[in-house]
Every structure is written in structure tokens, then in C-alpha cells.
Specification:
The complex is a heterodimer of chains A (205) and B (221). By secondary structure, chain A is of the alpha+beta class. Chain A contains two helices and eight strands; from the N terminus they run H-E-E-H-E-E-E-E-E-E. Chain B has 221 residues and is an alpha+beta fold. Among the domains of chain B are: 2-21 and 197-220; 23-116, Beta Barrel (OB fold (Dihydrolipoamide Acetyltransferase, E2P)), CATH 2.40.50. A five-stranded mixed barrel of chain B has the order 1-2-3-5-4. The termini of chain B are close together. Classes of the chains: A alpha+beta (205), B alpha+beta (221).
């Protein structure tokens, strides 16, 4: 404090004199903001959990229903044993959609269908560990009474504007996308892409 | 008091740093080449044979088919590995006609012959997009390989690998067909991959920071 210029020193002394009066309001403000943020985070994760449970019930109903639902309206379940992932996929990749689960990118074929089916999810929740996947790892997709077996072929880091990874493909491909770096809180300027291809030996539940 | 302010300052600095997400992805670059294609699906082929699928402000390119153009915008740098083979996407922000005819090998034509076109021509930066190809993995991240070129879509779909029916027979439904014949058909919105970075972890850290700072401030009173 001694190194400050006289005016700054006076200002600091004045503020220090006022601090005892405003300490309690400041503390209350900080605690209020912290509480609000905590509630928001807890509500978001709670909503995500509830949406997943709802989709799971819907999926089980479709699996055991005598009349299978149309493929376009069916719920998709993706299981990746290596990273202990078992989630329901929502339609769309908007911000609100991705809060509920991995999102199937619009205008791409449904998982299991011919073509390049794309699923994106947040790096901090569902796809946190897809970077651990390697060539040959299994991905199982179940939808509308059908079961599909994919095998990871490769993964890559791409720029967000590199849409070549979502281009149509003649192969039965499943592309998983999340932000990169995955194990990090902060800027995520790139995307981690895992590309899997379907193999013929579709499994049964 | 000092502890509380220190915690608050650290949390604030962390949040400001984190809110700069995707700021590094907006590097601008320019590519020169021959314009081809049709309305809504333009491609630019540079002298090295690399093709760029043009997205963004392509409305005014209709009158420049077959011309040698310099387009400016966001996309992989011409010498980046993403464009070493195959096709890359390029979001156009501005364009400039270099020549009214494409001549092999002279894509880097004399710029004095260039004619600015269009009111939306920004005609500014020729910045090499050094960041567009930076792939610096974070500590602890899994090693990943270089993205190989994605094969071009076939011109016809075959159904030889249709899904096998499970125990419950389902009526055959028409699957969503892809559009393989279009050279520029990125299905994502606005030609970018989905935003998959959630702010929730940051909010969680901020919440803990605010609560700690508030508690320490209250305690010192």
C-alpha cells in the first residue's frame, strides 16, 4: 500500500473504511449467485436424467410392442461397453436437445440405416470418454426392434467447419462427434470424431 | 476478506478465459482457383487440384462460373493436411475475380488484373490461417490420428446391407435416404459441426467459487 500514489492510497483507505459496512451485503450477493448457479446446474442435470429415463421407458415399450413403431419415430439406444456408455439418443443437435442426451444430427440417416448417421453429444457428459475408443471397439445400436453392431474404424480431430465428416456415405457408418479437448473445462475449438462402420453380424438382445 | 476477494478474482478470471470458446476457430484465409458447379453447389479447384466446397455467401458467384476467383473466408488453409487430398468445405465471406478464364497453372495470377466484384467483397485479408490446422491435444487427452479423406458418396445406394429384422417383425419402412449425388451436401446447419461444449461444468465451478468467496467474506465479518 505504501507504494501507491497518494490519491490511490487515499482511495484505498477510504474503501477499506467502508468495507466493514458493505461486507455483509457482498457476502450475501456472492452466496446468492453461487446458490442460483448451483440450482441451475442441478436442474439441468436433473432434467437430463429425467429425459433419459423417459426415453428409456419409451424405448422399452417400443422394443416389446407387438407392432413395431415406424423407424423414423423410434427411440435409439446406443451402448458402448468399453466406456460403460448406455444412452438414449434424442433427435436434433440443438442446445436444448443436447441437454437431454446425445443428439442425432438432422438430415442424416437414422442410426442403423444405410449412410452416414451422425450423433453428437456434450464432452462433459455422455461422450466424455469416447476419446478412449480405439480401432475395433464395439458400438451397439438398438432401435425399433432392430439391433446393429458397429466397429470403430478410426477417430480424428477436426475443425468445427470441417463438415466432410458428416457427408453422406455409401457405407453403413456411424459418426460420433464431441468437443475436443474432451477432458477439459474451457475453450473447445475443435471436434473429436469417432467413425464406426456397421458389420453384418447384427446381434440380438 | 482478502481470501474471499482472491477466490472471487480467480473464479472470474477462469470464467472469462473459458467464455472465449471457439474464438480460435475464426481464422480467415483465402483460396484462389477455378470456380465450377451450379447454383447453391459451387466448388473451387486450386492449381494443385484441391477442391473446396463453397458455402456461406455464394449468391453472387453465379455469374463467375469458369472464372478464376479468389475467395476469402473460413476454411482449411490451402496447405493444410485437411486439403491435401479430397474435398474440404470453405465458408465464403468475400470473393474477387482474378481472371475471366481459368488457365492451368496460373492460379496465382497477377493481382493487378483482378477486378473486385460484388458489394459483399471484403477483399481484405490474405492471412495464412495458421490456426486452422493446429491440432494441439490437451494434457491427458487420448492420442488421435490424422483425419483421412472421407470418400465421396456413391452415385447410387444399394440395400445389400439392410438391417436384419429382429424377433419382432417390423414392416419395412423407407429409411432416410442420403443425397449422395450432390457434391456439396453437408447436412449440418450453417456448415458447421454441432456445438458440443456445455457451459454446465463452468457454471458448477463458478457456483463453488461464489459460494466459497461468499462464505469467506461472511466469516471474516
Amino acid at each position: 500500500m505504501n507504494t501507491l500514489p497518494p490519491k490511490a492510497s487515499e482511495w484505498a483507505a477510504r474503501m477499506a473504511g467502508r468495507w466493514p459496512k458493505c461486507r455483509r451485503p457482498v457476502a450475501f450477493l456472492l452466496l446468492s449467485v453461487g446458490t442460483l448457479l448451483s440450482v441451475h446446474v442441478a436442474h439441468s442435470y436433473g432434467t437430463m436424467y429425467a429425459a433419459q429415463r423417459q426415453l428409456e421407458r419409451e424405448w422399452e415399450h417400443q422394443q416389446h410392442s407387438p407392432a413395431a413403431p415406424p423407424l423414423t419415430n423410434s427411440v435409439t439406444r446406443v451402448s458402448i461397453p468399453k466406456i460403460n456408455l448406455d444412452v438414449m439418443v434424442v433427435e436434433g443437435t440443438s442446445h436444448s436437445s443436447l441437454l437431454n442426451g446425445p443428439g442425432h444430427l438432422d438430415d442424416t440417416p437414422a442410426p442403423g440405416a444405410t449412410g452416414n448417421s451422425v450423433i453428437a453429444a456434450h464432452r462433459d457428459t455422455f461422450f466424455r470418454n469416447i476419446g478412449d475408443l480405439g480401432r475395433g471397439d464395439d458400438i451397439f445400436v438398438r432401435r425399433a426392434g432392430h439391433a446393429y453392431h458397429y466397429v470403430v474404424k478410426r477417430k480424428a480431430i477436426v475443425q468445427p467447419n470441417d463438415v466432410t465428416v458428416v457427408k453422406p456415405s455409401p457405407q453403413n457408418r456411424l459418426t460420433l462427434i464431441t468437443c475436443y479437448p474432451s477432458h477439459y473445462i474451457g475453450p473447445a475449438p475443435q471436434r473429436l470424431v469417432v467413425i464406426a462402420e456397421r458389420i453384418d453380424d447384427s446381434f440380438h438382445n | 476478506m482478502k481470501k474471499g476477494l482472491a477466490v472471487f478474482s480467480a473464479v472470474l478470471a477462469l470464467s472469462l478465459a473459458s467464455l472465449a470458446q471457439d474464438a480460435a476457430t475464426t481464422a480467415t484465409t483465402s483460396v484462389t482457383g477455378c470456380l465450377a458447379g451450379s447454383a447453391g453447389a459451387y466448388t473451387l479447384t486450386d492449381p494443385a487440384g484441391k477442391s473446396y466446397v463453397l458455402t456461406g455467401k455464394t449468391d453472387d458467384l453465379a455469374g463467375h462460373l469458369g472464372h478464376q476467383m479468389e475467395v476469402t473466408g473460413q476454411g482449411p488453409a490451402p496447405n493444410s493436411s485437411q486439403t491435401s487430398s479430397g474435398t474440404a468445405s470453405f465458408e465464403v465471406a468475400g470473393a474477387k475475380m482474378i481472371s475471366d478464364q481459368c488457365a492451368a497453372g496460373n492460379a496465382k495470377a497477377d493481382s493487378t488484373k483482378g477486378v473486385a466484384v460484388g458489394a459483399w467483397d471484403k477483399g481484405t485479408t490474405n492471412t495464412p490461417a495458421g490456426d486452422t490446422n493446429s491440432e494441439s491435444p490437451a494434457p491427458g487427452a487420448a492420442p488421435v490420428g490424422q483425419m483421412p479423406p472421407v470418400p465421396e458418396a456413391a452415385t447410387s445406394q444399394t440395400n445389400v446391407n439392410q438391417p436384419e429384422p429382429a424377433a419382432v417383425p417390423a414392416p419395412p419402412q423407407p429409411e432416410t435416404p442420403s443425397a449422395p449425388s450432390e457434391p456439396a451436401a453437408p447436412p449440418s446447419q450453417e456448415a458447421t459441426l454441432p456445438q458440443t461444449a456445455s457451459p454446465l461444468p463452468l457454471f458448477g465451478i463458478l457456483a463453488v467459487g461464489f459460494l466459497c468467496a461468499g462464505y469467506m467474506t461472511l466469516r471474516t465479518s
